[in-house]
Amino acid sequence: MPVITTIEDLRRIYERRVPRMFYDYAESGSWTEQTFHDNSADFSDIRLRQRVAVDMAGRSTASQMIGEDVAMPVALAPVGLTGMQHADGEIKAAKAAEEFGVPFTLSTMSINSIEDVAEHSSKPFWFQLYTMKDQDYVSRLIQRAKDAKCSALVITLDLQILGQRHKDLKNGLSAPPKLTAKTIANLMTKWAWGIEMLGAKRREFGNIVGHVEGISDASSLGAWTAEQFDPSLDWAKVEKLIDQWGGKVILKGILDAEDAKMAAKIGADAIIVSNHGGRQLDGALSSIRMLPQIMDAVGGDIEVHLDSGIRSGQDVLKALALGAKGTYVGRAFVYGLGAMGQKGVTTALDVIQKELDTTMALCGERNVGDLGRHNLLIPEDFGGLWLNTPPAS
């Protein structure tokens, strides 16, 4: 058993264990991948303020996200195809999150269905919704999430049109997969993954197959999903979805102060400052670089969370100190899942919590709720001095 001390340790095992097409699906961004890389790299521009001779006993990382108690303000982000990273991946990730005491968010594009995850969970999880053209399907999907007792709906706003990810096209990642000789050769080397997948509950999108008329196999699924993301999504439609859900709503994909204001105006409970992990608009600023501007605009009006780029507990601390009330890890937990299944997800969360706790202590704080900009050394131009930055309103 290797000694795991960082999320990077899990990534290296994950890369060795999982087929290249699924590794590349997670570990890539759109176009040049500038935003994908900036999401993580920009955290290093923020430095930490060390304090000494402070009572560090009795520390706690416990907090709340949208009123729910959490062991630390870190949720598992919605990640499509998680069930192809490891057999029954969504079920295993949800169980690890529940045992650890953090939220799990199930993707619309999951392999295990809402019902599969609910069957193996004793506490409510969150459900992430992609808006589709098929409004009847969307309505039934929302009802299924209600029936499963999901405690929050996470509506993704930044996938009206799919950003191009070169590696997915070259690997033939589609429904069904377009296998090449290179892909087949790589799959043959991942025998442990393959044996586990033979016993998986599902290997297709469980929230779609069997729930849409005419969708019975991978071929019909691919044709349907390629046309379904709704490019006409606007704030009026988002409001209707909020009303339809009738519970707590988190809006994901906010990267602009004006959009954050609109989210607060229409009554969302929280927003996630996110650029979809660098998988949509390449060239957009990183989430952490946009966070201060968004906090200044709406921090007192709505709960603000952040995802995209978090690979450590120190990254979590920096986001919290800049004002976020919650953070999300996507790739970090997928590395653990692909490397070691449910135990790997738990290991990833352990690593992040230990780093968060230790860094918090060395910054002179005993509770995550006390973190603030006073714990950081932030470059004066961290938010960017852009010629056409919209004026504050």
Helix percent reads 40-55%
Cα end-to-end separation: 55 Å
Stretches with pLDDT under 50, minimum 5 residues: none
Strand order across the largest sheet: 4-11-10-9-8-7-6-5
Strand content: 5-15%
Radius of gyration: 20 Å
Largest sheet: 8 strands, parallel
Number of strands: 12
Average pLDDT number: 95
Instruction: Encode the helix/strand succession as letters.
Output: HHHEEEEHHEHEHEHHHHHEHEHEHEHE
State the secondary-structure class: alpha/beta
Q: With helices defined by DSSP (H or I, 4 residues minimum), what is the helix count?
A: 16
- What would the principal axes of the Cα set say about the shape? globular
What's the layout of helices and strands?
Elements (H helix, E strand, L loop, with lengths): L6 H11 L2 H7 L7 H8 L5 E2 L14 E3 L2 E3 L3 E3 L5 H4 L3 H12 L4 E2 L7 H6 L6 E4 L5 H13 L4 E5 L9 H6 L9 H8 L2 H8 L19 H9 L8 H11 L3 E6 L2 H9 L4 E4 L13 H12 L4 E4 L6 H9 L4 E4 L1 H32 L13 E2 L16
Parallel strand pairs: 4-11, 5-6, 6-7, 7-8, 8-9, 9-10, 10-11
Antiparallel strand pairs: 1-12, 2-3
Give a written overview of the molecule.
- This protein has 393 residues and is of the alpha/beta class.
- It has helices spanning 7-17, 20-26, 34-41, 82-85, 89-100, 114-119, 135-147, 166-171, 181-188, 191-198, 218-226, 235-245, 257-265, 287-298, 313-321, 331-362, and strands at 47-48, 63-65, 68-70, 74-76, 105-106, 126-129, 152-156, 249-254, 270-273, 303-306, 326-329, 376-377.
- Helix 1 (7-17) runs antiparallel to helix 16 (331-362), helix 5 runs parallel beside helix 16 and helix 13 crosses helix 14.
- The longest helix is centred in the C-terminal third of the chain and has 32 residues, at 331-362.
- The model has no long low-confidence stretch (mean pLDDT 95).
